[in-house]
Amino acid sequence: MSVLSARGLRKSYGALEVVAGVELEIEPGECFGLLGPNGAGKTTTLKLCLGLIEPDAGTIELLGEPVPRRAREARTRVGVVPQFDNLDPDFTATENLLVYARYFGLSGERMRERVPRLLEFAGLGARADARINTLSGGMKRRLTLARGLVNDPQLVVMDEPTTGLDPQARHLIWERLRRLTAEGKTLLLTTHFMEEAERLCHRLAIMDKGRIVVQGTPRALIAEHIEPQVVEVHGQGSEAWMQAARAHCARVERAGDTVFCYAADVAPVLKSLAGQSELAYLHRPANLEDVFLKLTGRDLRD
Q1: pTM value?
Q2: Which CATH number fits domain 227-285: 1.10.3470, 2.60.40, 3.30.70, 3.40.50?
Q3: Of 54, 67, 113, 119, which sits with the fewest C-beta atoms within 10 Å of its C-beta?
C-alpha cells in the first residue's frame, strides 16, 4: 500500500487554478521530491495532501486514511518540518521537543527517554539545555527536524529543509535524512536545490503552473530529457562564438552572459574554444538543474 496517493487534485483561488489535476503516488521507504519554480503549486499540493485545505476535486489517501475526512487521524503518523523554523524562544531545546510532543498526546517517561535520542540524532546532545536564541541557524534547523520526529512518524514532510544553511550544515542534514530512509521512514520534500534532490530523492516530480510536468528517478529524467554533456561559455565574444557553435551542439541557450551548449559529443565544441583566451568555459556532465530549466524555463519567477 502506498504511503500517499493523490488522484486528480485541483484547487483554485478565484479564477486562478493553483493545482490542476495533480497525480502522486509515494511508496513506503522512499524519499520523494516535489520540485518546481516559485508559484508552481508545491506548497498548496502539500497542504492538500495533509488535509490542511480542501481540494475542489480529486481524492487523497494518506497512510490508508481518506483526506480530508480523516486527515487528523492520518496526521498523528506524519512529521512536518516547515520551511521556516518556528521554535519557541522561551524554551530550551529539550523543552521544545517535550511541549511539541504533547500535541500528539505524548508525555511522561516515554518522551523523557526519547528526547535525548532525538537530540543526539540532530547532533545537539550537548545543547539539550540551551535556549533557542543561543543556537546557530544550522542547529535550529536540526532541532526543527528532530521536533518533526517526536511522534515517530511513518511519513516526514519537509518544505525546503536546508534553505539558508551553509554547506557543512546542509551535508549534515542530508546524512540525517539518508539515515531516516535507511530506517524505513518515507520522506516527502520540496527543495530549490537541484543537487539536494539529485542526491537524496529516489524519485521526484517537477511541477509547473499547477501541473506535474514529469516524474521519475533523477538519473532517468536526466537521461531522457537532456543531452549528456554541457559546456558553459562566457566572456567577450561569446555571442559570435555561440553562432558558430550551433553547428556542433544539439541545443544552445543563452542566460545572461553565459552560453550553454548541450551535446552528446563536445569534442568539436572544446576544439572550437582552444586558443580563445577571451572566453572562459566549463565542461561538465548534465545534471538535474539542466532538466529543471529546460522543462520550466529560465525566466525569473517571483
Answers
A1: 0.92
A2: 3.30.70
A3: 113
